[in-house]
Amino acid sequence: MARARAFTTEALRDWSWSTPPDADLGEDVVLLVAELVGNAMLHAGGPLELVLDATPARLRIEVSDASSVLPTLRTPHRPGLPGGHGLYIVQHTADRWGSDLHSQGKSIWAEIDAGRLLA
């Protein structure tokens, strides 16, 4: 987890996104990485790959793992109780998120619009 957070922090710095207009947004990106990597560790035996893909339109965070079980939001969300908050946090922090099956398992991704990072 620490390596994923450090990698993300350095990538944001390299892309000059470490101090976006909303100072908390850079931390939100790191939080999204931590939640997606943490879910892969907890539910899928660990992540296979973390990809950060920046385009002029958006930043995409993608975590791949070997499980073919797609994630589901726990409903109802249970504030104040431990566990089950990861995808709720992802849903409310990212502009979009989803999952894709592939031959090695699945990828869970979250996107933040570049306008939020660069405006």
From TrEMBL:
Residues making up the signal peptide according to the UniProt record: none
Keyword Transferase tagged: yes
Domain Histidine kinase/HSP90-like ATPase: 2-109
One matching Pfam family: HATPase_c_2
InterPro entries the UniProt entry points to: Anti-sigma-factor_SerPK, HATPase_C_sf, HATPase_dom
A GO molecular-function annotation: protein serine/threonine kinase activity
Keyword terms of this UniProt record: Kinase, Serine/threonine-protein kinase, Transferase
Record PANTHER family: ANTI-SIGMA-F FACTOR RSBW, ANTI-SIGMA-F FACTOR RSBW-RELATED
Source taxon at top rank: Bacteria
Protein known as: Anti-sigma factor
